[in-house]
Design a protein that fits this description.
Number of helices of chain B: 13
Shape of chain A: globular
Strand content of chain B: 5-15%
Helix content of chain A: 40-55%
Strand order of the largest sheet of chain B: 3-2-1-4-5-7-12
Radius of gyration of chain B: 21 Å
Structural class of chain A: alpha/beta
Number of strands of chain B: 14
CATH superfamily of the largest domain in chain A: Dihydrodipicolinate Reductase, domain 2
Number of strands of chain A: 13
Number of domains of chain A: 2
Shape of chain B: globular
Order of helices and strands of chain B: HEHEHEHEHEEHHEEEEEHEHEHHEHH
CATH superfamily of one domain in chain B: NAD(P)-binding Rossmann-like Domain
Distance between the termini of chain A: 62 Å
Strand order of the largest sheet of chain A: 8-9-10-7-11-12-13
Oligomer: heterodimer
Structural class of chain B: alpha/beta
CATH topology of one domain in chain B: Rossmann fold
CATH architecture of the largest domain in chain A: 2-Layer Sandwich
C-alpha cells in the first residue's frame, strides 16, 4: 500500500522530515503547505513535489492524502492537527505535541473517535542506541521496572542554527510559548522518562533559572537551566536536567534497575550495561574495567559496521526515519503506535507542571 | 520612482568623501536604509555613507543584540542622524516602518544558516517583504541588492577563463548543496521579478570574498581544514578578494551613482593574489602550519566519489563535497572589476598589499589571544 503524505509547515523541520520520508519505501510526498506561499513553493520545487498550497483546507479538498506531518511552530499544532484529523488523515505532529495537556487530550480523543492515528515527534526515543536500550529493558535486564532514571537533555547556545535566531529576535515564536524556549526543546528528554512511568499523575518538582551566561548578554527573560524530580505512583523516580551551559552538551539517559542498570550515551551512540557482578576483593578494580573496555569496543564495532552498511545516518535522522517508518507500519498494518498515547499525554502533563512551577517558583532555602 | 540626478557640484560641496565628478541620485539629506547594518559589511557601508556626507541613515538591526559600533558611529558623526532601528524583516509592519520615506535601500541582511529553509526564509521572504514595503511607500529611488559572486556558474568557462557579469547564473544550485548561495540566487530572482512587474529601480552587487580586520577565517577557496590537516586546494588559482573598505565603497556607490539602474556588478579588488601567494604570506605573517597541496583534478575526483557515496548511502554523508562546488571554488578563474570601475567610478582605495597586511596583522593578534 502506498501512503500519500503531505507536510504542513515548510521550514527547517519540513526539510528533515522530507529527507527521511523519501527514504521510506511505500510512502510518497504528494503535497506541501505553508501559509507563506514562497516557503511552500521552494520546498515543492527543491524536492520535486507536485502540489503546494497556502491553505490546508484547499490541500485536503484537492489532493488525496493519507498522512499529514505537521512541522509548523507549536502554537498551530492543535488547530492543524484537528483539521487534518477531520479531513480523515493520520497525523504526525512535531514536538512539542501541543501547547498543553487539554489540547493533547482533545486531539487524541478525536483521533480515537475517528479511528485514525496521531503521534508526537518524540524521535529522540528512536535513535539506534535508544532502540537497543529498549530491547534490553524488554528482555528483563533491569530486573523489572526501573527504580530510578536520569535524563540529561541539554542544549548549546553556541548552535548557530537555532539559538542565534532565537536570541537575536525578541519576537521569536519560541519566546511566546507557555513554556518559552523550554517548551520547544525539553519534550525529548521528558518523553524518555515518561515511557517508563506508571499511572497518569506523577509528582513533579521543578526548579528553573536563567544562566549567568544569558544574564550577561541581557537575556534575563529566558529560563535555560532546569532541574526536575519526578515520582510515579509506584515510586519509580527520575531526575531531569536541562542546561545550556554544560560542556560537552550531554544527551544521556540512565536507567537504574533492581538487578542491573543501563547507560545510554546518545551523543556517541553508546549503550553500557552496568552489571551487578560480584568480584572478590581487588578483582572488582581489575575485572570490571576490562569488561567496560570490551563493551566500548563492541559499541565501536557496531557503529562502524552500521556505517559501512549505510545504516548509520546521524542519530536525529536515523531516529526520525525509525519513528516515521514505525508510524507508517502501524497505519498500514493497523497495529499499535510506536509511542503510546499515554506516554504522549504524560510527557505533556509533566511539561505543564514544570512550566507552572518555573513561572511561580517556591523559594528555595539559601 | 525614477532616478534623478542632482547638481554634482552642489552635492560635492556638502560632503567630504564622494568624488566631485560623480552624478548621484540623492542629496545628503535624503533618508537611506541599510539592512543588516550591524553585520561585517553593513557597518562599513554605514560608515562610508556617513563619511560621504549622508546625514540620515536608518540602520536596521535585529531586535535583540548590541549595536555598540553603530552607537559609536552615531557619536562620531554628530551632524548626522543615525537611527538604529530594531526590527525583523519577516514582519511586514517592521518593513513598512523601516522603509518610511527612504530613497535608497542597501539590502545587506541575509540568511546565513545551515538549512535551505532557513536561508530561504531569511533571504528571500525577507526581501519580498522589504520589496512590498518599498513599492507601497513609493519614495524609493534605488534598491541595492547585495548578492554574492558565488551565484555564478563557471561550468562553461575553461580553467583560467574570465568570470564576469556576463556569465550565467548557476541554474543547478541544489546540486551544490549550498543553502546560503541557493538563498542568494533566489533573492536575486525575486528582485528581478519585482523589477519587471513593478518597475523597481535596482542594482545588484555581487562582492567576491570580503576580507579585512574582523574576519578570522581564510576563505575555503584557499583550502579546507575539515579533515584535520589543511588541504591546499587553490594552488595557482587567482583568489577573488575585496577588502572590506573597498567593498563597502563599491556598494555605497552602487546606490548613489546615476545611470546604473538594472546593472549587476562583481566587486573584486586589483592585484588579486594567487592562492599560493596568499597562503605563503599567511604562514609568514600569522602562523606556520602544514598544508598539503592537492591538484584540482585529484580533488575533483575525490569530490565526485564523495558525491556518489552520498547518493548511494541516502545521505549518510551529506553531499557537501561535490563536483559543482569543486568547480566553482577550485577550478580557477580570472576576474574583472572593469564594469564597477567604469560605471560606478569606483577604485579600490586600499591596495591589495596594504589590505593583506592589515588582515594578517589582525589575524596574528587573534592567534596571540588564543
Amino acid at each position: 500500500m502506498m501512503l500519500n503524505v503531505a507536510i504542513i509547515g515548510c521550514g527547517k523541520m519540513a526539510d528533515q522530515h522530507a529527507a527521511q520520508i523519501q527514504r521510506i519505501t511505500g510512502a510518497t510526498i504528494v503535497a506541501v503547505c505553508d501559509s507563506e506561499l514562497l516557503m511552500a513553493r521552494q520546498l515543492s520545487e527543491r524536492l520535486g513535489i507536485e502540489h503546494y498550497f497556502t491553505s490546508e483546507r484547499e490541500m485536503f479538498e484537492t489532493v488525496k492524502i493519507d498522512v499529514v506531518h505537521i512541522t509548523t511552530p507549536p502554537a498551530s499544532h492543535f488547530f492543524l492537527g484537528k483539521a487534518a484529523l477531520e479531513a480523515s488523515c493520520h497525523v504526525y505532529i512535531e514536538k512539542p505535541f501541543t501547547l498543553n495537556t487539554i489540547e493533547a487530550e482533545d486531539l487524541i480523543n478525536l483521533a480515537n473517535q475517528k479511528n485514525l492515528k496521531v503521534i508526537a515527534g518524540h524521535n529522540a526515543q528512536f535513535t539506534p542506541v535508544m532502540v537497543r536500550m529498549r530491547e534490553m529493558v524488554n528482555s528483563g535486564y533491569l530486573g523489572g521496572k526501573p527504580v530510578h532514571m536520569e535524563s540529561h537533555y541539554c542544549y548549546d547556545f553556541g548552535d548557530a542554527s537555532y539559538a542565534k535566531t532565537l536570541l537575536g529576535d525578541s519576537e521569536h515564536w519560541a519566546r511566546k510559548l507557555p513554556g518559552s524556549l523550554l517548551q520547544n526543546i525539553i519534550s525529548h528528554g521528558i518523553s524518555k522518562i515518561a515511557e517508563f512511568l506508571s499511572g497518569d499523575n506523577p509528582v513533579v518538582i521543578a526548579h528553573g533559572f536563567t544562566s549567568p551566561f544569558l544574564k550577561s548578554i541581557g537575556q534575563d527573560d529566558i529560563v535555560d537551566e532546569v532541574r526536575v524530580i519526578i515520582r510515579d505512583e509506584n515510586s519509580t523516580t527520575a531526575y531531569f536536567t536541562f542546561s545550556s551551559q554544560i560542556k560537552p552538551v550531554p544527551h544521556q539517559f540512565r536507567l537504574y534497575g533492581s538487578k542491573n542498570s543501563l547507560i545510554v550515551d546518545d551523543d556517541n551512540q553508546i549503550l553500557l550495561k552496568i552489571g551487578n557482578d560480584d568480584y572478590k576483593s581487588y578483582l572488582r578494580y581489575f575485572v570490571p574495567p576490562l569488561g567496560y573496555a570490551k563493551q566500548y569496543m563492541a559499541n565501536f564495532g557496531r557503529n562502524v559496521g552500521k556505517f559501512i552498511q549505510k545504516d548509520f545516518h546521524l542519530s536525529n535522522d536515523a531516529a526520525l526515519k525509525s519513528l516515521i517508518e514505525s508510524f507508517y507500519d502501524s497505519i498500514v498494518g493497523n497495529t499499535p503506535l510506536p509511542l503510546s498515547h499515554r506516554e504522549i499525554l504524560l510527557t505533556t502533563k509533566i511539561m505543564d507542571d514544570i512550566f507552572v512551577q518555573i513561572k511561580h517558583p517556591c523559594r528555595l532555602p539559601d | 520612482m525614477s532616478a534623478i540626478s542632482i547638481d554634482d557640484k552642489t552635492f560635492s560641496k556638502n560632503n567630504t568623501g564622494l568624488p566631485e565628478s560623480d552624478g548621484v541620485i540623492i542629496s545628503p539629506s535624503e533618508p537611506i536604509l541599510v539592512t543588516g547594518a550591524n553585520g561585517y559589511v553593513g557597518l562599513m557601508v554605514v560608515r562610508t555613507l556617513l563619511s560621504f556626507g549622508y546625514k540620515k541613515i536608518r540602520c536596521l538591526t535585529r531586535s535583540t543584540g548590541k549595536s555598540t559600533y553603530l552607537e559609536n558611529l552615531a557619536q562620531e558623526f554628530v551632524d548626522a542622524d543615525v537611527e538604529i532601528f530594531k526590527g525583523n524583516l519577516l514582519s511586514t509592519e517592521d518593513c513598512m516602518r523601516a522603509v518610511k520615506g527612504v530613497t535608497v535601500v542597501y539590502h545587506l541582511a541575509a540568511g546565513v544558516e545551515k538549512s535551505y529553509a532557513g536561508c530561504f526564509l531569511n533571504s528571500v521572504v525577507t526581501t519580498r517583504n522589504l520589496l512590498d514595503a518599498v513599492i507601497k511607500e513609493s519614495t524609493l529611488k534605488r534598491f541595492v541588492n547585495i548578492s554574492s559572486i558565488a551565484v555564478y556558474s563557471n561550468e562553461h568557462i575553461p580553467r583560467g577563463g574570465l568570470l564576469d557579469e556576463s556569465c550565467e547564473i548557476d541554474s543547478k544550485m541544489i546540486e551544490r548543496h549550498e543553502p546560503y548561495t541557493y538563498g542568494k540566487t533566489k533573492q536575486d530572482e525575486i528582485v528581478l521579478e519585482y523589477a519587471e512587474k513593478n518597475n523597481l529601480p535596482y542594482v545588484i552587487v555581487r562582492p567576491s570574498v570580503v576580507f579585512g580586520p574582523g574576519k578570522v577565517k581564510i576563505t575555503d577557496r584557499i583550502g579546507s581544514g575539515t579533515f584535520g590537516v589543511f588541504l591546499h586546494l587553490g594552488l595557482n588559482n587567482t583568489i577573488p578578494l575585496t577588502y572590506i573598505d573597498n567593498c563597502a565603497e563599491a556598494i555605497v556607490l552602487a546606490g548613489l551613482k546615476s545611470g546604473v539602474d538594472g546593472q549587476e556588478f562583481i566587486i573584486t579588488d586589483d592585484d588579486l593574489p594567487t592562492s599560493r601567494e596568499f597562503l605563503r604570506l599567511y604562514k609568514k605573517k600569522v602562523r606556520q602550519f602544514i598544508s598539503i597541496p592537492v591538484p584540482y583534478f585529484i580533488w575533483y575526483f575525490l569530490c565526485s566519489l564523495w558525491e556518489r557515496y552520498s547518493k548511494w548511502s541516502e545521505g549518510q554523508l551529506p553531499p557537501v563535497f561535490n563536483r559543482r562546488t569543486c568547480a566553482v571554488y577550485w577550478k580557477g578563474n580570472t576576474y574583472s572589476n572593469q564594469k564597477a570601475k567604469r560605471l560606478l567610478g569606483w577604485h579600490p582605495k586600499v591596495s591589495m598589499k596594504d589590505g593583506l597586511e592589515q588582515f594578517f596583522t589582525y589575524m596574528k593578534e587573534m592567534e596571540t589571544k588564543k
